[in-house]
Structures are given as structure tokens and as C-alpha cells.
């Protein structure tokens, strides 16, 4: 377990054993073999926030999860199934998602619209949920609050991911320690696949739904929305954030809500200090986002693109995204071909006003472009930088103090292989 | 020669021998070996129009060619060199381009700003033109108006292109037959390379500079701007259009200007009928654009994307471009993996309002999506469609009569190989 999770939480196993959340993994039968269902059950209902794919072609699970968010439902359980994306399946698809939610609700003791269901997998094939309801009872009964069960659940979410992704952070408010943790799956392949990203984030800190949603939107903008494997988005991408402490706070059960009454960093209504929580959440989301890129299909290099001094954050993001999605840039890194011209050229077509006369570009520790001119890099330095597994790409534009970071991987033979091969 | 050129011009060789343009190919020494210079010399000065890369990072040759266009110069010769893009080279780079122009001008007898020079090749390396001036005299002296010389020039423009690209069309105005022809180079690799596209188009039809520029901009929008190999643009992309008849018309030498005075399809000032010319030019430009895609790095499939019924032409272009640049769509075609979900998903993230309930998608002869639902395709039909070398992808949105076409190729192992390998 220690090897599986990232973050700075020394007592994460102890937190898990507190029983705030129980986990389960099992097989419903959707995939040809192996576990295809992960379940998260909160001991009490949790406050819920979510951010969903911007693709206008949305899976039935996304519209269902968005409806629960709009109705500000408190959530008792989350079911994630893999093998079928339930996208492009019309009204019958939506009914399938709700049938699974109702099945879980029956076993954990809540209303159907207090269960969020997410799917990942093949697009355009009827899910026919009635075939899979039989496995739900065992899945729900076996749920437990152990590190092993969490590991099983994180693994059951995987498709072509090569490792499960879990991260946790602790943060302190007065005398009370709170936890933020999360799981994610990245680019995974079921025939046919999309670069589907799903993440579930949980905190025990007392936070209202409003704050939860506001902080989640900001953090996703700086983490999950700043990674690219191939520039494609799926109909299923979803990031969900739950606060178990938030529901307790709203219900007035202050026992768990350490911040209340201490007067330290708490707000009047008992919420924890927002920046403290946001930092911890950003840390967890960044861990998970980075691990999705590191586990990107076929990836051999991890690139951190820093854009500094653009005229706005939106301009900086466009520049970073254009570099991160350029096939010419990504193949050059795969080939360890020292090729700053391709990066400068990507910046030039980003659709953003840039003064090349003031621009600087640095790859690793080598300044390669300065004030309208390419600089000469010794061949040994170029080779050394390109051989690094993690390569910083720093673009300095000199027009402001704005700085953003963006993460991507290289484009490799294996990416083409994974996505070109017929796998049925 | 017959095998080399496309188009409907039965007497193209005869046209060439008329001597309106002379061609030459030779070696200046910029590349390690082989011809690296192509020359086009007009018997009299030609009217000139041009469309250039939208990349804000522009080669010195592009700014030089744009200056001549702005000054409405009549052009005597075009020099294209390969091996060095002369981009990111500052003021010294611009001086290098002008030095080559002056060199050609001295040998063909015109002013330096009546010569257009284009470069393609490595970015960010000083060109140091003084080293290459020696080869210009022989290049200019050997120019001749033969099909063999045209073939040599088209070949000297190539980098990793696997075949030279020439197309010609004839069109009739009254009793007079006019010609439009052109050459192009596509995605070619010099270390390091960009998906550089250069094209020179020529007509003997009498057309004013204004009309020439207007028609060129429209035609490029429908041809060269509707192809994608990898979504990258270079600092050097240029399409130049010359009318030898236009300059004669303006000079009042009506001998060559058959349309004048016949009253058939000619305008008052002796220009040929614009739609007739535009059709012929579009045919030539489309031939060349298609051949660039067919010769795309590593390509094994040619995809024609038709988008019909979008709310506007701009919306249709965005949808087509999103499909054409999706790595998931392009690798699926390479793998002959029948995967309509990836195309629907690309449409969904194009950033355009689309009603999926009204949408239809057809691959080859198979309707695969209709009114919000994927249709079942027999496996034998799916295999047959994916085995085709040229696959039509038709998206019908039902919101208008607008229709656009867009061309692309698949993403293959060889694309990654060509662009990842260190070639020096």
C-alpha cells in the first residue's frame, strides 16, 4: 500500500481505518474478465461537488451525475463500472445508469438519487444494466474501510492504466488534523477507448457545498485541466469531490468538526479555512494529474511546461497547450531530438500575441532562444538534456508576472500501437 | 513527365514549350548532397499574389515576400532553396534572403525586389548566404522551358516528399485557351523539420493583381487550408500565384490576351472571366493539396471529411479540423479499427453547438450513427470499409445547406519514426 499512494500523509492508513468511507471492488460481468466495478460508501451522507467533461457528447452517467449536483443531493455511495462507457445510447442508456444506482441504493440503504454512478469503456454499445444487477449485493456487502480494499477499488477502476493512482494529504486546523485523498484512472483502453479520466476526491474537513464546488473548479483548472496525453476528451471525464465533514457540519453534529469553536482558521459557520483546504486538495489533485501523464499511453518522458510573463493566464494556457499537443514537439522528445525550433514554431501558431524579440526559451538547464535569436547549444549538453526522463520546458515572455504550469508526455510508437490495434 | 503531373491539361507540354516560364534546378551547397535550389524565371514580369503562414513566428523569406506583395511588385523570378529555413535568424537572416534575391536579379536582369526567394529546412541556423552565391550563375544560365526542367525544379523543392507534385488545368475563354499550373512541396524533413508547405502557381490568363489576390485567398481557404497532416504549421508556409498574362494586359500588349475584344466572358479591362479562372485554379490547388496529404509523413490512408449542414462554414471547418487532428481518430484508421465513437467524440469537443439527436455519421458506405444512436454495423462491412485506402467520412448536421470538405491522412508508426529520429 505504501508504494501505491503519493502525498504527505503519514497516518493515511489510520485515517482509513476510522471508517469514514468503505471501499469494495468486484466483478459484475461487463468486461470479459477481471474486476469491473469499484464502490465507495460513505458512513454518513457526504456533501458533493463535481466537474465534468466539456465534450457536448456526454455519457448517460455524466448527465445523471450532473442532475444530482444541480439538485444539491447529499451522496451515500459512488459506483464506477468499466467495460462500457454508456455513451451514445439514448434514453435507454440513462435508464441503465439509474437502474445501477437504484441497485446500489437498495443494498446500502439510501435513495437511488443519493448514489452517483460513473462508467468508462466502449462507446455506443447498449449497457443493458439488468444483466449486471446480480453482482451488486456482494459488492456492497464486502465493502470495508481498509487500505487493501482501497487498493482493490483503485485497481478495479483501471483499464490500460499500468498502476493504480491514489494520493492523500493531511492538513492541520488548530488542534485538528483533516484529510484530503483521492483516486483516479487515466488513459485506458477498452475497445474502442478514449483518453478517459475519472477521479473521486474525498475530505473529512467540514466544508459547505458552495465552497466545495468553488474550490474544486479552481483546483481542477490548475491540475486536471492542465494535462494532455493526446488532446482528446471523452464523453465520460468526471472529477467528483465529497466532504463527509461538510454533511456533518450542516447537520450540526459538531463532534467531528474540530475547527468549530476553536476560533483558529475556522469561519463562523464552522467551515475550515479555505486556503488551507485548497492547498491540500491541489496537492492531491496534482499528484493524480501527474500520475495520469506519467502513465499516459506509451509515454517515456514527462514534460513540465512553464509559461511565464504572458499577457494573461488564458494566453499562457493556450501557448502551453499548443506545445503540449504538437505531434512534432512530442515525437522530437520521444526521439531525444534536441529541436527548439519546433517549440518556437508551436508558440507562433498558438493564436496569441507574442513578442519574439523579448522571448526566452529554456530546455532543462539550457537557454536555447533569447531576444529573437536561437543560441548555440553544445551537442553534449543537448544530448544530456534530452536523455532526462523529466524535462522542464520554460517559456518566458516578459509581459507580466503570470505563471502557469502544464504537463504532458511524449508521442511514441507505443501510443500508436495501443490505439491502432484491434483488440477484440 | 506524364506520370508526374495531375489535372486535365492535354497539351501542357506544348504550353510549357511556349516559353512563358523557364525552369532550373541545381545545387548551391546548403544541403549535404543533392539539388537544393529550384528556379522559376518568367519571360516577362508577372503579376503576383501570395498567401502566407499564419504562424506569427515567420521566416525571413516570408517577411521579404510579403514586403514585395505589399509594394505590388511585378516579379521576374522565384528562387526556392532547401536545407535551411532561415527562421529565427534575426536581421542577419533577412539580409541573407535579400542577398540571394540580388544574386538572381544580377543574372536574370531585373531589380532585386523583383525576385521572390523562399526557403525550407532547419530552423534557427544562420544561412550565411555569401557561401551560396557562387551557384546562382549556373542555375540561372541553365533555365529552360522544358517539361524535364520543370520536373527537375519540382524535385529540387522536395525534402522528405516521396514524389514531386505538379498539376495543370486548361480553360477556354471564347477561342482562347489559358493555362493554370502549379508545383508544391509537402511535409518534408530536414533536421529539424516542420510540416512545411510551399507552392508556386502560374497562369497565362490576363488577370489584374487585385483579382489574382482575391481569387487566391478564396481558393487557398478551400484547398491548402483544408488539409492537415499533423496540425502543425511552419514559419515558412507560402503559396504564390503569378499571372504572366496579367502583366502583359496591364502593359497593353494585347497579343497574348485573347479574351480582350472577343466580348466573350471577358471584362471591360481585358480580364478573363473570374469564375472560369477560379475553377481552374481550384482544380490545380486541390490536386496539389491532396497530393501533399497522400504524401503525408508515414501516411497509409487518405481521408475525405465532408461536413454538411453545420450552422456556418466556420463551424463546419472546426468540426472537420477537430476530427482531422484527433490522434485517436487517426490511429484508429491506421489500425483499420472501426471506431465511430472516436469520431462522434471528436465532434463533441469541437467547441461548436451540435444537435446529436439530428446528426448522422457515415463511414464509407455505412451509416453508423443516426438521431442520437449508434447503428449496428456487420463486422464484414466494418472490415471492408476500413480496408479501403481512401475513406469518406460524412457528417450530416441538418441545420443548413452548408457543405465543406477537408482532407487528412492517418497517424502511423512511420510518422513517429520520421519525426523522432535524429538524422544528422
Topology (elements, then pairings):
The structure is a homodimer of 424-residue chains.
Chain A: E1 5-7, H1 12-17, E2 21-26, E3 37-52, H2 60-70, E4 75-84, H3 90-108, E5 115-122, H4 136-141, H5 147-156, E6 165-173, E7 176-185, E8 198-203, H6 209-222, E9 227-228, E10 238-243, H7 244-251, H8 274-294, E11 302-308, H9 313-324, H10 327-334, H11 340-348, E12 360-363, E13 366-370, E14 373-374, H12 379-387, E15 390-396, E16 403-409, H13 413-420
Parallel strand pairs in A: 1-6, 4-5, 8-10, 9-16, 11-15
Antiparallel strand pairs in A: 2-3, 3-4, 3-10, 6-7, 7-8, 11-16, 12-13, 12-15, 13-14
Helix pairs in contact in A: 2-3, 6-8
Keywords (chains A, B): Acyltransferase, Amino-acid biosynthesis, Arginine biosynthesis, Autocatalytic cleavage, Cytoplasm, Multifunctional enzyme, Transferase
Active site (chains A, B): 196
EC number (chains A, B): 2.3.1.35, 2.3.1.1
Would you kindly provide a brief summary of this structure?
The structure is a homodimer of 424-residue chains. With 424 residues, chain A is of the alpha/beta class.
